[in-house]
Amino acid sequence: MTASTKPTAPGATDVVLEAVGLTKHFPVRRRPRDLLTRTRRAVRAVDDVGLVLRRGQVTAMVGESGSGKSTVARLLAQLVRQTSGRISLHGDEVRTRGGRAFRAYCRRVQLVFQDPFASLNPVHTVRYHLTRALRIHHRDRDVTAALHDLLTRVQLTPPEQFLAKYPHELSGGQRQRVAIARALAAGPEALLADEPVSMLDVSIRLGVLNLLRDLRDRLDLAILYITHDIASARYFADDVLVMYAGQVVEGGDGEAVTQRAAHPYTRLLIASAPDPDRIAGEADEDTAESGGEPPSLIDPPAGCRFHPRCPHAMARCRTEAPPRLSVDGNGSGHWAACWLYDAPTVAEAAT
Ligand SMILES: Nc1ncnc2c1ncn2[C@@H]1O[C@H](COP(=O)(O)OP(=O)(O)OP(=O)(O)O)[C@@H](O)[C@H]1O
């Protein structure tokens, strides 16, 4: 049974941002032999990705390096243009770049980058960064009060102590809080957080994740949390999407995906994550054989892109790309793009 792509509870009115069939291929410079054969090659960074961000919910996008997560964030933030597919905010598709509707979209969908040091200008103070963002987006606001609000909201208090500081005078966690405050200055409805804690010391990561959770609850933000760390997604996200080689291979509510992972790749990710409860050397029998590397995105494998690494690969997996299939058949919304969940295929394989 193909899983429904319609949003489940909470209702469709809670949908803030939606992407359908989102695809980004980066052209690769042609080699001399490509000129002869007229081959046009491309890195298929994102292929046919669908996602929904809902008000007051965190959706985690998990996958290993190079799986296309950051490209999805840059597409949603309109920093790069998609090759195909559509992105809509409250049901309105973004069609043109420029103009009032596009500017409103860019205000309402804000991106927080992985490296707060690189995203803040070292020659400007916190006051400058935040004032500039406020002036661009809300010319009529009382700036002093707004600065105070923003810094309090990201728990940099007392605000007066931080306004005159330069990025190098702040800790990594404080810098990321300033970057988050700058995103909030626009008054967004969706926040795209691209590995927001991966450059921070382990000891302060939890504080920043708790801040994002607090913002989700207080401001009803729709948050996309991009990470390679499935353990943090388990802790933090309402919904989880798992990306492999440019495609989303599993999705559902956070608990289902992380506690009852269905796709062999998700199981591999979980088995590879450090887990203090697992005895060293002990491996899930499902994942023990799944070694190997992710495939080339210029020439990805036919069929399921995970099949060369999959311990359960069947003949069909090598030729046909699996659709989203319901994992439990009870309408929970937990799905996997894996032929293991196609009843006729499994029956055939068993005979
Ligand atoms: N501008 C670009 N031109 C060509 N290829 C690109 C470009 N940007 C990204 N890619 C390629 O697209 C693929 C996906 O990259 P992306 O950065 O989205 O992955 P990621 O999952 O975010 O990885 P990481 O966690 O390492 O950032 C990679 O193979 C990358 O080399």
Notable traits:
single chain; 351 residues; alpha/beta; Rossmann fold; 2 domains; eight-stranded mixed sheet; four-stranded antiparallel sheet; 33% helix; 20% strand; globular; disordered N terminus; binds adenosine-5'-triphosphate
Question: Can you walk through the features of this model?
Answer:
- With 351 residues, the protein is α/β, with parallel strands linked by helices.
- The chain has 2 domains: 14-26 and 45-259, P-loop containing nucleotide triphosphate hydrolases (Rossmann fold, 3-Layer(aba) Sandwich); 264-351, no CATH class.
- 33% of the residues lie in helices and 20% in strands.
- The chain has 13 helices and 12 strands.
- It has helices spanning 32-37, 69-76, 100-108, 116-119, 126-137, 143-153, 160-163, 172-185, 202-219, 230-236, 254-259, 264-272, 343-350, and strands at 15-27, 42-54, 58-62, 84-89, 92-93, 109-112, 190-194, 222-227, 239-244, 247-253, 325-326, 335-336.
- Helix 9 links the parallel strand 7 (190-194) and strand 8.
- Helix 5 crosses helix 6 (143-153), helix 5 runs parallel beside helix 8 and helix 6 (143-153) crosses helix 8.
- It starts with 14 loop residues before the first strand and ends with a helix.
- It binds adenosine-5'-triphosphate.
- The site of adenosine-5'-triphosphate has 13 residues, from strand 2 and helix 2.
Quick synopsis:
This protein is 33% helix and 20% strand. It is of the alpha/beta class.
Describe the secondary structure blueprint for this structure.
Elements: E1 15-27, H1 32-37, E2 42-54, E3 58-62, H2 69-76, E4 84-89, E5 92-93, H3 100-108, E6 109-112, H4 116-119, H5 126-137, H6 143-153, H7 160-163, H8 172-185, E7 190-194, H9 202-219, E8 222-227, H10 230-236, E9 239-244, E10 247-253, H11 254-259, H12 264-272, E11 325-326, E12 335-336, H13 343-350
Parallel strand pairs: 3-8, 3-9, 6-7, 7-8
Antiparallel strand pairs: 1-2, 1-4, 4-5, 9-10, 10-12, 11-12
Helix pairs in contact: 5-6, 5-8, 6-8
Bound molecules: adenosine-5'-triphosphate.
Residues 26, 43, 45, 63, 65-71, 228, 297 line the site of adenosine-5'-triphosphate.
GO molecular function, one term: ATP binding
Domain ABC transporter: 30-270
Keywords: ATP-binding, Nucleotide-binding, Transport
